[in-house]
Amino acid sequence: MKPAAIISVLHQRTFSVLESYVRDNPQTTVFAWQGPEDPELVRRIAAAGGEMVPLHVPLPLFQRARLKAESRWRLSRLEGVLRGPAWSRFCSERGWPGERLRALIGRRARADLPVIAAVVAALERIAASHTVRLVVVSEDFSPWARAAVLWARERGIPSLHLSHSLTVCEPYTVHRRIVSDVLAVFGERGAEGYLDADADAFVGQIRLTGNPAWDDYPQMVSRREAIRCGLAIRHELPPSRPWVVFATTVVETQTAFCDDGVFEETLRAFLEACRTLADEGRGVEIIVKDRPPNRTFGSARLGELVTELGMAKEHIHYVVDEMKEWVVAADAVVSVASNVSVEALLAATPAVNLVTEVDVALTPSFDAESGIVEAEGHELAAALGRILSDPDHRVRLRDQMRRAASRYNLGLDGTATTRVVRLMEELASPVAAEGSHGRSAASREGERV
Amino acid sequence: MSAGMVDSAGVERLKGRLEVDLFEAHAVGPAVVAMGCQAGRRSLSLARGGLAVTVIDGSQAALDEVRSLAGAVAIDIEPGDVRHPPVGDDAYDSLLSLDCTAYGPRWLEILPEWVRVVKPGGRLVLGVPSLGGSCCGGGVAADADGIPQEKGGAHRPLVTAGDLAADADVRGLAVLHAVPCGVFSGESGCGPLAALEGKHWWRRLLSWLATDELLLEFALFLEQELVGRLSGAAAERVMVVLERRPDPQANQTWLRTHDDLQALLAGEIALDALVPYLRVPAGEFRSRLDTHLRASLRNFAFFEGTCRGLAWGGAQVDVASFLEADTLARFEDWSRRRRLDRDVASQARDWTTAPGVERSLRLRGVNLADALEYHLVEDLFADRSGSSSGGRR
Predict the structure, then answer these.
(1) Do the interacting molecules here have an ipTM over 0.90?
(2) Which residues pair with residue A375 across a beta bridge?
(3) Which of B264, B288, B312 is the last residue of a domain?
C-alpha cells in the first residue's frame, strides 16, 4: 500500500488546517505549493506526525529537457490550431476578434503552459509513489490550483476549494464558477454571490465551515486591551487618543470595473476625512495598514499625500503587518469592500466601508443590518466623527455586528479549522481505494447551504 | 438560505410610507374605517392628524397590537368580521384596506358590504392585485378556477380594469385612481422586478431603505412619480381609489386612460410618451431624477439594478430618454463594463472548446488550456484598456 498524501495549494493564512489534518491523519505527506519554505511550519507538520514537502521539486536535467520539449511541441500544435480555418470560423461565429485573441492566447500559453505542465507532471510523480486522498486549494481559479483540481478530477481524486476570502461582491469573470468538487465558504453571506450567479448549479457544491484564519478572533477579542497596549508600545502610539485604521485596497484586475486609481483615491479620501476631524478638534491617530508587497510604494505615496494635504505627520503611522491586532485594537476601522470590515464585525470593532463606484457596481458589499457603516468619501468624516463621539451609536453598531456575525462566519467559536478538517476527512478518498473515484458531492454530509 | 437573508425592514419602511402617503392623499372626511389591522397600523398617522379612525379585525391579538402601537392616539377598535363589518350604513367618510384578497381572491365580491358603510361621496382606498397584463406586471398567480397558486404558476388578473369599471357602474361608484404601488416590495415572483426578488445582492441593497434617507426618498420618487402614474399592470399591487357616487362616464374615461397606459407597457417606454400622465413636464422629471441619481452612489446602483431587472410585460424601457447627458454616460459606461466582463469571461473560458485546442493541450487527461483562464482574463482586460499591467497590486 502506498503512503497517503494530500496536495495543498492553500495560502499561508489557512495552513492551520494542514497541521490539524495531519494530526488527525498521521503519516500523511502534504505536498504543498506554499509552506515548505517555512521551517517552522515544516517542523509543526512533522510534530503532528506527518511531513510537508514541496509540490514542485526541481527535476533532473533530462526530465526538465523532456518537459521543455513537450511544452514546445504543445505550443507549436496550439499555434497551428489558432492559425487554422477552424479557429477563424469558431471566432467568427461568436463575433470574437480571432487574430487578436490568437496573439493573446499564444503569449499567455508560452508564459504559463510550461509551469502548468510541470505541475501536472509533478502531480503524476506524486501519484506514482503516494495515494493522493485530496486536493485542497485556496483559489481554484488561479493557474496552479486550477491545474491541480483538473488533474484531481481526471484521476477521481476529490478536491476542495477553501475560500481565501469572503466574496463580498458578486463573483465576476473567473470567480463565477466552482471547478472543485466542493467550495467551503465562511458563512451564508459567503455563499450569496454564488447563489445569485447560479443557485441551481452551485448549491450542491457549497459547504459552510467558517474561516480557519479567523479562529483566533474570539481569543484576541478577550485580550483587546493587552493587544492595544502592545501595539501602543511597539508603534509609539498614545493609547488614550482614538485610533482609526485604514486598510488599503488593491486594483481588481479581473473585471472591467477595475479602477487603477483606487489605492490613491481611497487613501486620499480617508486622509481628508481625518483632516476634517482634526480641524474640528477631534484629532485621531491615523494608522494606514498596507499590504507587505506595497511597503516601498505605499509608504512613499502616503508621505506625498500627507504633504500635499498639509497634514501633521506626527499622528500618521504606516504599517504592513499585524492586521488582526489592529482590527481588534482600533477604535474604528475603514476599508473598501473588504474582508477587513468582516473581521472588524467579528471583533465588534466599529467599521466603515468606504463606498466606491466599483464597490456599488459590483453589488453592495454589506446590508443595513450588518452594523457596518457605509460612507462615500465625502461622508467619511461625519461617519467617523459619530462613531468616535457617540457611545450609544457604538453600542448599537456592536449589537448589530454581534447579531450579524454568524451570517458572515459560521460558529464564531474559533473552531472553523476543525470543521474544515472534518470536511477534508469526509471528502478524502479512502487510503485503500487507490485510484477510485471520490464520492459524489450529492452524497456527502456537512453544513449545507 | 432564506433564514439567513437580510430582513425586510427597509422594504417595509418604503411600503409604509407609500401607503400612508396614499391614504393621506385620498381619504376624505373626519371618520375613517380601516378594514384589517394592517390598514389599522398604517391609518394611525391619520388618527394622529385628528381623524376619527376605527379599526375592524377578527383577531383580538392583532387589535391589541394596534392599540399598543397607537399609544395615546385615540382610535376605536372593533372586533368583527371585516366581510360583514359590525357597523351601520353610511357610517364613515373613508374606508381603507391594504389587502382585499385576504378576504377572497375575487375581491370585488366584498365591495357591497364595504360600500354600504361609506357615506355617499365617501372614498374607498383598496389595496388589490394588479389589474391587467399577464405574467410579468400582471395579476396574481391563479389557476383556471381563480384559486391563487404558488409562485411561478400561471398568472392572470382575477379582476381586470374592465371588471372594475363595470362593477363600479353597477354599484354606483366612480373609479378615481388605480395607483400601481410597491414595485420594489414585490415577492410573488410575478411583478416587474421578479427577476431580482430572490437575489441576495438586491435584498442587501433594499435593506438600506431602512436607514438611508436619500435612497428612501429616491425609491418614493420612482414609485410615486413614475410607477404610480402608469397603468394598474405596472406593479403586482395597485391601490384603487373609489368614490361613492355613480359616474359611468368618468369610469369609461378612466378605463380608456388605463388602457392607453396599458398599451404603453407593451411597447417602448420613453419619457416623452409618458408626459401626458406625469405630474411634471419631461424636463423637470428628468432633472429631479438626475438629482436623486447624483445624490449617492447607492442611488445610482439602485436605479441601474432596477433597470437591469425590470420587465414590464413586453415593454422596452428607453432609459436614455429619462437621463441627463452626464448621468446617461455613466449608465452606459456601467453597461459597457458589464458587457465587457461577460465577453471577456466567455472568451477566456470558451476558447478552450475550439476545434483542436484540447487535443493540442491535453496532458495526462488534463486540458491545460483551462488553467490559462485566470491570467488570460487579465490579459484581455489589459489589452482592451491599453494598459500593460491591468492594474497595480
Answers:
(1) yes
(2) A354
(3) B288
